[in-house]
């Protein structure tokens, strides 16, 4: 074999290895910085299967992973952060989906499960007595300030709320430095956690300094401010945030004796940022978690955790500005949606219905001062589509209620706010993601009488979702606290 032929082979081999090295490097970098859909899809699928198994088996887990991957974060307090996530949906037939009827059944089973407390303390006896009174509440059809059809059981809700006002005492941990603890943002889509924290710490009726009389222990922290303070931009990792909350929890357990009495089941927290489920894993999974991202696949447990409403507050000084809308006779648009094409559901919605003349399905609308164009569409539409983005929750659910538009929730495995007491099927339409191609038929099949009924119920239920700088009866602050109280009462049984 002559030298010329050897040089020819050597040059071919070198070229091949150079190409192979280049392609391999490109793939690694793409996975690291752009998260190829196939890998995100596999992660989504595995986490979904795991969480569904745990939920349906009623097994407690300390490490159920989130089913979304949101990493690139804006430092703006008032705007939703852009997230570099997978736009493709894994194969629909392989994803576990829990229907609303299955959620209802799971709620009932969770209240029937035996839970134990180690000793018959005065607080335990009060909780057991409250539970007995709620279960045997005097039957009522209505009451001033509450409207029977929007509740699962108005008699139980009314009695439970009365007992909360009479009995409930909450001990608040004072540990932790601002801004992560004892501080919150009052505007934007994550405002719920800030408003609740602010109002809870200022409350005089329910807060106690005497831990021995406390039915609940509140851990006041802001997942949004945790993210803004500690997340390393472009790091693609929340590990330091998760570790931070783990360290804080372990400090509380070591410093105080309160946790060990119930293994944390009488503790609670509230978080609206998408990452709150991840930051409250481990020991904090034992607590009652009030979460906007109420995703069964991410470990949300019906009957224990509380679904926190995502309220987009545009003005902290005037959170109720511009609510209301047209009567049914003036609502000329069948259904409306506008927004960024986040996640895998919204592009499907746009693809099927973007050109339909009866519905207004858009991408992001051009910015108008006060978001007037968007709000006007909500005020003149019969149904408002609340399609999930990267995470299951969306401020559109609350916006629909504020503007008297019947919400159409398209977000599999999302547990609607205050699920334990509100009958969402009475004032909203819940559509599985796979049924988007049939969406128009679903809406047209609803009779005018049924729509008018839901419209009136929307007007009634929205009163539960308003923030007030000075809380009033049945408002959002009280509803959050009530759901935490309610789930705590129904998890109490003596061993």
TrEMBL record:
Domain Exostosin GT47: 166-444
Main location class: Golgi
Membrane topology: Single-pass type II membrane protein
Cellular localisation: Golgi apparatus membrane
Membrane-spanning parts: 17-33
MF annotations from Gene Ontology: glycosyltransferase activity
Keywords, comma-separated and alphabetical: Glycosyltransferase, Golgi apparatus, Membrane, Signal-anchor, Transferase, Transmembrane, Transmembrane helix
GO cellular component, one term: Golgi membrane
A Pfam family assignment: Exostosin_GT47
Family: Belongs to the glycosyltransferase 47 family.
Protein name: Exostosin-like protein
Classification of source organism: Eukaryota, Viridiplantae, Streptophyta, Embryophyta, Tracheophyta
